Amino acid sequence: AFLLAVYFRGMNFKEILSLTEAYLHSGKRLDLSDIPVPKIDKHSTGGVGDKVSLVLAPLAASLGLAVPMISGRGLGHTGGTLDKLESIPGFKVSGSLTRFKKQIRRIGVAMFGQTEELVPADRKIYALRDVTATVDSIPLITASIMSKKLAEGIDGLVLDVKVGNGAVLVEQQQAEILAKNMMKVGQAFGKKVVAYLTSMEQPLGLKIGNWLEVEESIECLQGGGPDDLKELVVELTAEMLLLAGLVKKKITAHRKCRQALQDGTAFKKMLQLVRAQRGNSQFIRNP
Predict the structure, then answer these.
(1) Residue 149 annotated among the catalytic residues of the structure
(2) How far is CA 265 from CA 93, 104, 256, in A?
(3) What is the largest CA-CA distance in the chain?
(4) What distance in Å separates the CA atoms of residue 222 and residue 67, rounded to the nearest whole number?
(5) What is the pLDDT of residue 72?
(6) Residue 106 in 3-state DSSP?
(7) Over the range 136-175, which residues count as b (16 or more CB within 10 Å of their CB) and which as e?
(8) Whole-angstrom Cα distance, residue 122 to residue 127?
(9) Residue from 84, 123, 148, 162 carrying the catalytic annotation
(10) Which residue among 101, 123, 129, 149 is the active-site one?
């Protein structure tokens, strides 16, 4: 009843902020302040063929960022990052906050699902939104995404808001409202937040389906892969480097990203990530 009320009536910004805080305080928050490198994450609202996180997280970590990524499962008609990662044999997306933090300290990147401790209220409501057809409510999307990201203990966040007929939000105006809401919530909590609107009028890349998208991500991490995927990965990772203050100019950030994809630095980080989360790295070496 609450979800339907929000869906039909909407929420003002103060109410969205209160809902985000309520989610956030329903569980523990991760404290990464003792990890000395900048902690920057990226979040996408999801779209068909969107495997950006699978390439971006190891790439960003290989360039000196800490990437504490709490990911989600499929919502609506798109596959989630966790579903894609679990198609790697043995890969575990669950674990305690202690293990999550240890992994960030050791290799600079972790891609887990929500733990029992982290934003439990959102986890329950996230599942309910799927079965009550309230997925595309902007206040609910805002509170869900931002509570998870704020609980990660990040310094900054890059948002990839998908818009078009293959996205949760079809109209650009709606996507802009969502992007602005999320930026305002992040800023209210003292975080640096940048948002991009990116097209989902056609699938991203050439492969769709959990394992196929992992395969295409591996191609991208080895310097290949389709141009649209590479362009978006490089642009969003470059923005993360700028937010962290590791580079001064976008052109320098682009060059660093392309080089790490080309010379195998990002791919090595992907192998480390898979091993750290108990996946079989042979499937990454020989997909």
Answers:
(1) no
(2) 23, 17, 11
(3) 53
(4) 20
(5) 80
(6) helix
(7) bbbbbbbbbbbbbbbbbbbbbbbbbbbbbebbbbeeeebb
(8) 9
(9) 148
(10) 129
Residue with tokens 């580079």: 247
Note the pTM of the prediction, 2 decimals.
0.93
Across the chain, mean pLDDT equals: 94
Pick the catalytic residue from 122, 136, 155, 160.
122
What's the confidence (pLDDT) of residue 118?
Answer: 87
Burial status of residue 255 (CB atoms within 10 A of its CB: 0-12, 13-18, 19 or more): middle
pLDDT tens readout for residues 209-228: 999 999 999 999 999 999 99
Cα–Cα dist 126/116, whole Å: 14
Q: Which of 39, 42, 43, 149 is catalytic?
A: 43
Does residue 114 register a pLDDT over 90? no
Per the annotation, the verdict on 53 as an active-site residue is: no
Q: What is the mean pLDDT of residues 144-152?
A: 93
CA distance 161 to 169: 9
Helix (H, G, I), strand (E, B) or coil at 223: coil
Q: How far apart are CA 18 and CA 13, in angstroms?
A: 9
* Residue 76: per-residue pLDDT: 61
Q: Catalytic site residue 122?
A: yes
> What confidence score (pLDDT) does residue 39 get?
97
As beta bridge partners, residue 197 has 161
pLDDT at 23 over 90: yes
The amino acid at residue 54 is L
Model pLDDT, residue 18? 97
The catalytically annotated residue of 144, 147, 192, 217 is 144
- Provide the pLDDT confidence category of residue 166 given band limits of 50, 70 and 90: confident
Annotation says 268 is catalytic: no
| pLDDT-based confidence at residue 130 (cuts at 50, 70, 90) | confident
Residue 221's alpha-carbon distances to 176, 234, 257, 282, in angstroms, are 30, 11, 10, 15
Is residue 148 part of the annotated active site? The answer reads: yes
